[in-house]
Design goal:
By secondary structure, the protein is an alpha+beta fold. The chain contains 6 helices and 13 strands. Among the domains are: 104-214, Immunoglobulin-like, CATH 2.60.40; 216-268. It is 33% helix and 39% strand.
Length: 274
């Protein structure tokens, strides 16, 4: 072998590493190109920053809950609302009531017993009696406090003319009371009297005493009739007395020419709060 051929072979062997080195050197280049892609940390920090900006929107819920707490619970959420609650209990107007003060504002719940007496002309009412007690919702019927199990009449002859409720849990500064009375007519029907709602401020103590007077009307009519009995029977059939209980006996006095003056009392259809 000549010296030139040996040089050619050595040259051929040296070319192989030169061709493979660029191939092997491509790996660092690829890694350097991929490094910016793999480091997404700035994007994650940007998401965290966006989440941080969104946190005030999420934390708005507790603020709303604090504002709604006085409605859902009897305990005031702040010292200011506690002062307002005390003012409402003393009869002051609610800030949300437009300054009227007569709408039965919400107050801290407390116990209240109602004692209702029924009379007629300052005497004991004889008949059946009943009351319904409501919380006042802006002057209208709110939550029913008594009676909650239906209409149970109390016989004033057997159990007296006073209704005493158990302790009621009241959360308004005013209550509404409906009074009802009824009497048995000679026809075996009932004359029933229902009052309008009586708006009564809750007292400072735990007992509310009220007196209801069942109205008594007077009759004084002149009628034409052949005799006194016919005159009384005629008055009893008049629209003024039909369906009403006569208190005692009607009296018929002749005024001449077959005319009679009929007088007496009857149970009217109204109940008043004394």
């Amino acid at each position: 072998m000549s010296d030139n051929e040996a040089k050619d072979e050595s040259t051929g062997d040296s070319e192989q590493p030169s061709e493979e080195q660029p191939t092997e050197g491509d790996q660092p280049a690829e890694q350097s190109d991929e490094q910016p892609t793999e480091s997404d940390q700035p994007a994650d920090e940007q998401q965290q920053a966006e989440q941080t900006e969104e946190q005030p929107a999420d934390t708005g819920q507790p603020a709303q809950q604090l504002e709604e707490q006085p409605v859902d619970s009897d305990q005031p959420a702040t010292a200011a609302s506690a002062d307002n609650t005390l003012a409402f209990a003393e009869g002051a107007a609610s800030p949300d009531d437009g300054g009227g003060g007569g709408g039965g504002t919400k107050v801290s719940a407390r116990n209240l017993k109602v004692i209702a007496e029924f009379t007629e002309e300052d005497e004991k009412f004889i008949g059946d009696i009943l009351i319904h007690v409501f919380e006042s919702d802006n002057g209208q019927q709110g939550r029913l406090l008594f009676q909650t199990g239906g209409q149970f009449w109390q016989d004033a002859v057997q159990k007296g003319n006073v209704i005493t409720t158990p302790m009621l849990r009241v959360a308004t500064s005013e209550v509404l009371i409906f009074a009802h009375a009824r009497v048995l007519l000679p026809t075996a029907d009932y004359q029933t009297i229902d009052s309008q709602d009586f708006k009564i401020p809750a007292p400072s103590g735990d007992t509310l005493r009220v007196k209801f007077d069942v109205g008594i009307g007077e009759i004084d009519n002149k009628v034409n009739a052949p005799d006194a009995n016919a005159a009384i029977a005629k008055v009893l059939q008049s629209p003024q007395l039909k369906g009403h209980l006569v208190k005692g006996d009607l009296k018929a006095e002749s005024v001449g020419n077959q005319q009679f003056r009929v007088t007496g009392k009857f149970l009217s259809g109204d109940i008043t709060l004394l």
